[in-house]
Amino acid sequence: MEPIKILVVEDEPITARDLNQSLKSLGYTVSATVDCAEDALEEVSKIQPDLVLMDIILKGTLDGINLANIIRQLYNIPVIFLTAYSDEETLQRAGITEPFGYLLKPFDEREIHSSIQIALRRHQVEQKMRENLEISEALRQEAERLAEVKSRYISMTSHEFRTPMTTIQGSTELLQYYSHRWTDEKKLIHYQRIKDAVKRMTNLLDEVLMIGKAESGKLPFNPQPVNLVIFCQNLAEEQELGNRTDQRIRITLRGYFPEGWRFDENLLRHILTNLLSNAIKYSPNGEDVNFIITGKDNQVVFEIQDRGIGIPAEELDQLFESFERATNVGSIPGTGLGLAIVKKCVDAHGGTISVESIQDVGTTFTVRLPCK
Length: 372
Ligand code: ADP
Known about the structure:
Layout: E1 5-9, H1 13-25, E2 29-34, H2 37-47, E3 51-55, H3 64-75, E4 79-83, H4 88-96, E5 102-104, H5 109-178, H6 184-215, E6 224-225, H7 228-242, E7 249-255, E8 262-263, H8 265-281, E9 289-296, E10 299-306, H9 338-348, E11 352-358, E12 362-370
Parallel strand pairs: 1-2, 1-3, 3-4, 4-5, 7-9
Antiparallel strand pairs: 6-8, 9-10, 10-12, 11-12
Bound molecules: adenosine-5'-diphosphate (ADP).
């Protein structure tokens, strides 16, 4: 067991010497003996004693009571007061500092020992209680946060499901009653609307499941060697095919991409498809998207640049939170979950993501992932 370090604050040299001897013979370590408040504060911060034995009456601007107050608030170290006599007023003032005990002069060794043991034990118990209180406060805050997230999920998902379901209902009813009079082209428009609505609901379900897993810390992370170049080319192609405009994704490769670099393919897919599909979706002017992949010094950097609607500067920071959407999205559909998922997937890789954007000019997302 570590020796118990005690700081003695006593301005009568003979009392200080006697006390020191008693403490040593009881097996305690006297880390320092000082005679004024200023020196005591310096020693407390330097040696961080387990306990302070302190004369109530000290010379100088601060007396023992003021000093005990400071030590309790700044350092949370137990203080036992040393006193020869005690008037009621002094004792009341001392009481406010919640001392861990009083030792009356002249000291009795057994009393010194029991007072110190009681003070240390009480301090330990109080410390434990404080830690428990902190834990329960953190748990309470976490429960509050989860309740808030849950209610946001419910209101957002019910709202986001309603729109495609209304579309499906409208188009199927129209097909049911009027298809015999419609041309094949007109029917196709409604079949396509139904398909789009189902896709939107499936995406939403996937995103909700994914963010649920990520927020509860259950995102599986299985890095495997990935051929980055082929992987990125396939992803870009999929995005172009799934997109009904003729926007292109222009890939630029820089540096080198060793075969052995490992990523979690599923999470990497979430990162890149979300960023690429956003770049296309938020470029209603039909501008192409640049996808620059740079391999260097054990890291890969993905830059996804568009010349779309951009993001208002003051809203950039919050977009990686669930359900956050910028105010300039107009009628472009979305859930506000994609970037939150991207951030979690980047974090799982130990990487970083940043964004630069100018409204009505364009946006660049940069993802840096370490590679081993
Ligand atoms: P959403 O489903 O709304 O697209 P995301 O989480 O993917 O959700 O993105 C959050 C918000 O960030 C979007 O609603 C949009 O306001 C903004 N955003 C993301 N990417 C872009 C981009 N490339 N250009 C402009 N705004 C973007």
